[in-house]
Amino acid sequence: MFWRLFTSGIDRYRHGEESWALVTGGSDGIGKGLCEVLASKGFNVFIHGRNQTKLVSVLEELKVTYPTRQFEVIVADATNPALASEVAAAVAQKNLTILINNAGYTDTAIRAFVLTDHQEFDKAIAIGVGWITHLTRELLPLLMKNEPSLMVNVGSYVQSHPPPFLAVYSATKGYTLALTQSLRTEMQYTSHPNVEIQYHEIHSVSTHSNRKAPGLTRPTAHRMAEAIVGAVGSGRGFVVPYWPHELVSWVLWILPEGVVNSLAAGVLQDRRVDVEGKGKGKDD
Ligand SMILES: NC(=O)c1ccc[n+]([C@@H]2O[C@H](COP(=O)([O-])OP(=O)(O)OC[C@H]3O[C@@H](n4cnc5c(N)ncnc54)[C@H](OP(=O)(O)O)[C@@H]3O)[C@@H](O)[C@H]2O)c1
């Protein structure tokens, strides 16, 4: 909590003639909020997503709000990690100083592991493991060249407390945390301490993939994005950027494991798509 006394360190990554940020999954939700907040902080932004029409509409909106910033869209379906090299080619000539790996398998439905198609697993693993790994492999050399630079990997509390009915999605967030921690240390031991790499643990946020109304413990996507950018100055590898989420995470760590599991199971049972009469979508 004490790191919150310090202001965001995001300005550190705005240097040279023009600084660019790339936000994956920038056409909606937290990613779109991050594009807005980064533009407001003086960054030009590459908005990545899979839907050209939606991306162009976000780009037009941003151009009106931030007329002095530059924006470019990059269309690449993250279920195909081989496209990561095309993303790298699109940004190679720019002074890229920030990469936000925000895209996750948010299309996932809540259902029992044994009733999930193999294809669903493949998509979740392609985005949550393959895409982030190969995009990072493609872009880390650029971030090393342009340091000081920043990579933020957007995670979830499901990594800390894996709930039932979301096993593979939760596992991809565990992978993301391990990838983050290893690369963060690797930067320090390969003479690149100015490449900052962080995992940001997110709890419930009101977005397209989590349609519950916003409130104190469930911020809007824009508010969440502000918290993420604000937490960059923390200097920590693992951070819970939104303060009410951090309070909730303390409570979850204090409670006995069985209580946390039964709370999660109670909520998710009601939202299983594989049980007749139950809900749809996830809240993670
Ligand atoms: N919302 C929450 O409660 C919550 C909680 C914990 C963690 N998170 C994490 O936060 C991140 C963002 O979640 P969100 O709630 O903002 O999601 P969202 O509102 O569903 O937005 C997801 C973004 O990713 C894009 N995307 C999805 N699949 C893609 C693909 N195959 N290729 C390219 N782009 C793709 C979407 O594109 P389209 O516009 O085309 O759909 C959209 O721009 C994810 O990593 C998620 O795991 C969210």
UniProtKB/TrEMBL annotation:
Gene Ontology MF terms in the entry: oxidoreductase activity
Pfam families registered for this protein in UniProt: adh_short
InterPro entries hit by this protein: NAD(P)-bd_dom_sf (IPR036291), Sc_DH/Rdtase_CS (IPR020904), SDR_fam (IPR002347), VLCFA-Steroid_DH (IPR051019)
Subcellular location: Endoplasmic reticulum
One GO location term (cellular component): endoplasmic reticulum
Family: Belongs to the short-chain dehydrogenases/reductases (SDR) family.
Stated name of the protein: NAD(P)-binding protein
Native source species: Jaapia argillacea MUCL 33604
Lineage: Eukaryota, Fungi, Dikarya, Basidiomycota, Agaricomycotina
